């Protein structure tokens, strides 16, 4: 059973519905527990699972008898939590039903120690804690009251097939025009939630400096991400970004594309993808862009340097607009370099970051005997 009691919508919340079809394909029978009327619950339905639902996280604790009965009826022996707050429920269920194996993925990258009596009790019932990068694993080792052997790095993965090019040359040009990209311009995209930690402000400053220092270069920026709180973005931040773009005279050179469900196709319209996030716990957008064969410029912080090297992209400090301008300029002027980096990036994803391999590793963990975790 995948447990995610969240009303939000981000990588953490998307994860259960992303892995469920592959779990089914590899022979497992997945179930879900979610909040009623949440996007998580809807995504589980779309993935072919009718989730057990509760109204609020506290109500889940009150519904423990009902949940235990569901686990018994469906012979569920593995629980997998995705929010730290959900471990209260997971640990309680594991305590009340000996034999349940409890797993937890730290999607966010813990920053504070969790070694007080409550956390020792809750994490003491965790069979395995998954860190989604080596950067988060090092933080996990310091923060959690678990033996090192119970904390494993398990990179996320994607199905690369949707990111293979599909558009004809004519359809690609139509899509580029709809995004405001002029003919012959190098399209530089930044996908992700519009919130301060994602680095859009630094990217805009970098484009301004690029326009000043290399006025001969033809480029167009595309910001991809929801523009409202309901779409996961910070509306005050979005307004500040718009004001800054206007103040810098870049309104004709930067498009706010809004929330899009067709990201694999949008990647086809782009030539360069930027991910200037300050402290990514993994970098799902990075591997999506790499799977699409794009040259990526990523922040040299958090987990992103684990995904990109000199043969697959470029790195720049997340708070250094001049370095970002320089990295983008290098890629703007050299189409051959963009192509070589993109091809290498695509090969790396198929080798190291597929959803099939991720779920196979997950199932291997689900399947081992408890004694083997000691």
TrEMBL record:
The keyword Lipoprotein does not apply. Residues 172-348 form the Glycosyl transferase family domain. The keyword Phosphoprotein does not apply. CDD domains: GT4_PimA-like. GO terms for biological process: carbohydrate derivative metabolic process. One of its GO terms (molecular function) is glycosyltransferase activity. This is Glycosyltransferase family 1 protein. It comes from Halomonas heilongjiangensis. Residues 9-161 form the Glycosyltransferase subfamily 4-like N-terminal domain.
């Amino acid at each position: 059973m995948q447990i995610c009691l969240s009303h939000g919508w981000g990588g953490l919340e998307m994860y259960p519905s992303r892995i469920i079809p592959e779990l089914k394909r590899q022979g497992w029978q997945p179930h879900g527990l979610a909040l009623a009327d949440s996007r998580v619950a809807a995504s589980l339905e779309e993935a072919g699972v009718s989730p057990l639902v509760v109204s609020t996280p506290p109500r889940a604790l009150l519904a423990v008898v009902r949940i235990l009965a569901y686990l018994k009826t469906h012979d569920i022996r593995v629980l997998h939590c995705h929010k730290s707050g959900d471990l209260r429920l997971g640990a309680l269920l594991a305590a009340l039903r000996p034999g349940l194996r409890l797993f937890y993925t730290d999607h966010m990258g813990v920053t504070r120690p969790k070694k007080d009596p409550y956390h020792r009790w809750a994490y003491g019932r965790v069979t395995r804690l998954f860190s989604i990068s080596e950067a988060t694993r090092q933080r996990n080792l310091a923060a959690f009251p678990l033996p090192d052997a119970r904390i494993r790095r398990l990179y996320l993965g994607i199905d690369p097939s949707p990111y293979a090019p599909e558009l004809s040359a004519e359809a690609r040009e139509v899509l580029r025009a709809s995004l405001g990209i002029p003919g012959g311009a190098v399209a530089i995209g930044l996908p992700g939630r519009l919130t301060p930690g994602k680095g859009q402000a630094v990217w805009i400053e970098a484009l301004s400096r690029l326009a000043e220092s290399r006025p001969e270069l033809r480029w167009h920026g595309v910001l991809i991400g929801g523009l409202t709180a309901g779409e996961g973005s910070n509306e005050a931040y979005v307004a500040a970004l718009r004001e800054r773009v206007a103040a810098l005279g870049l309104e004709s050179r930067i498009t706010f594309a809004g929330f899009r469900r067709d990201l694999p196709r949008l990647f086809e319209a782009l030539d360069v993808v930027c991910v200037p996030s300050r402290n990514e716990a993994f970098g799902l957008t990075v591997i999506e862009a790499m799977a699409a064969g794009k040259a990526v410029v990523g922040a040299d912080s958090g987990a992103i340097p684990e995904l990109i090297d000199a043969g697959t992209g470029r790195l720049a400090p997340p708070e250094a607009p001049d370095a970002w301008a320089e990295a983008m300029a290098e890629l703007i002027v050299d189409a051959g370099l963009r192509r070589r980096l993109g091809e290498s990036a695509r090969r790396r994803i198929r080798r190291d970051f597929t959803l099939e391999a991720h779920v196979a590793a997950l199932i291997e963990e689900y399947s081992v005997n408890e004694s083997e975790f000691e």
